Amino acid sequence: MMCGEVTVSGSSVAWKRGRTLKQLGVNCRWSSIVVDERSARGDSDELLANAYGGLGGGGILCAGDRAPDAPGLVDAEGGTTLFFRLFGPTYHTVVFFAADVHCVAELLVALAECPPKNVRAVLVLPQGHAQISAKAIRGIDTMVTDRGRHAYGGYVVSEESPVTVVVRLDGIVGGIVLGMAGLRRYFVGVFGGAYGA
């Protein structure tokens, strides 16, 4: 028996949707407080259409989009977690995607200038990298390895190029930055005069 394109036997064709329905069209890409050093900015019709998956959207995560989850993150003790357990409604989560722990040291200085208890730092190592306890690196709250490459894949990050992603309290990506200047610009936009005080 056929019901449109779906058969009673359980075909899943009806559940597949194009990118135009992703996130129900909700994003904050043009907000004045998002910082995106990885994607082109502007208000052209093409960028607007791409925000909703039109014109071949490209599938790249931009600042202002909802932060995706990533299962299979493994901590130093061997336990698994997901991003949605690390994000929180009372703090910004700064996610460092880096294969080398030392790349992050300079960026931790920018976090130290934030108002206390408003920021948590997560270091995500690529699949196959050995990790040490997060407590061994001052300023890192959580360190995980991306066992299934869900984090690096979902955030469209290369293992060779470190990227920092800031997830706001509401679960939206507030910043995708490539270095110290971008991270500071994001926090000045969010905390204003309280940043660095």
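The above is record 1. Record 2 follows with the same two-line structure.
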Amino acid sequence: MSLPPRFIDLKREIVDLYPNFKERAIQAWGEIIAQLKEVNAEIAKTGPNYIPQVNFADLEKLEPEEIDKIKRRGSVVIKDVVPDEEAVGWKLQLKEFVQANPDVEASAWLNNLYHAKKSDQPSQGVDLSTPLTYADRFRIRRPGLWEMHPPHVDGGTIERWEDPAFRQCFSDILSGNWRSHDPYELKGRLDASTSRYNRPNQVNMSYAAQAETFLTIGKV
């Protein structure tokens, strides 16, 4: 897909904002590719256990190292959020399940992984302990059937660098200092326009986590 000509000016504007953009971007990209090879090898060796797994009852007792690992991985499996008997009841009573909000405490814990930058004042009007949770679908996924919704990463689109506020989230990356990038900083996310083109299934707000509540019994 060809972008409109205005994106040429936008790219030039971004380049001018960051000194030595070309050299730093090329160097950073090479470092990222090398790092990806190491991480991919570790994922292949570790398998499913690469994703941290914790019990719901232990969320407030996790060691800093465990929280850092969750933030580094960018994903976590929280087990035993709902008792088995209650989960079976939800499966049989879909309407009650959708209307309920069983993951409020887990969502609040995930929200609080985010923070204001150390040099910034906490954002006024932001309450990370009061989550807004919604259920947008109910899916019955049989073992081994991934064709309709395979494992993937939602990488976002051009809004990430087109929108000036959203671009602030990635300033360290654009300046070549990708190792300093903190994906849990709030700055830039609260005022970002994440949906400038009204695409389907795209939300025009910042949300802390995309999650699923699994009601089945089995190994992750």
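The radius of gyration is 20 Å.
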